[in-house]
Amino acid sequence: MRVLIRLMILVLVPLSSNLRSQDTKLGYEYIKLHGEKKGLAQHNYEPVMIDMEYPYFTGDSTSYEFLNSEISNYLFESHKTFDKLCGSFFRDHRRDSSDDRTSNWSVIKTIDVVYLSSNLVSLTSFYEKQEGLNIFFEQLATLNYEMDDKKRLTLEDVFDENYKKYLLTLIWFRLHQLKDGNNNLMKFYTETLDNVLTQQFYITEKEFVMIFAKGEIAHRIYGDLVVGVPYSEIKPIMKMNLVE
Asked: What are phi and psi of 56, to 5 degrees?
């Protein structure tokens, strides 16, 4: 059981430090941040809390500064710093919560490095936010960067101009193989069937992976839908080399 405290705690802990990079000029270590305050005094609620875990990049080039800035913008948004984000969230709790609330207030944000080379960085992120009984938000997203030009990649950067039909065929072939918890094939919304791609993708050493958010192309009960395509199959439409 988590020990409840009255004041916010800030913890900065390197979790790992070496670093799966093919480029000796760019490395990273994972950082964990935690802030919390005690819930309503007369109830045994879990504390209001914010948890974050993310890669902090280091190196002797400007790449690490760019990546850390991008990650900071994603994590802290308009608040700019972790302390200010915590302060704002705790103020919202004091303003909007009441004694009859039974749900927790919390923010969880994590970022993982799934691929890192001399010119490409691929990250996945998870974001969950709960504010009392009525507001709940959850998102699995991706961040992909080409480091020479310091830009975030889109499908149009990765593939040639005629990619869509070819990629639709590959992605939806795999989607149609997915099964639910009862081992039945999943059912998709008619308006999206065989006709929707997403800009949420990431890169691994072996395949190109696309993520469809919960409820985007099928009922939310299925959760996020993730499909991967080997590079050998998408090679005809690739205009940039994703893996060194």
From this structure: -110, 120
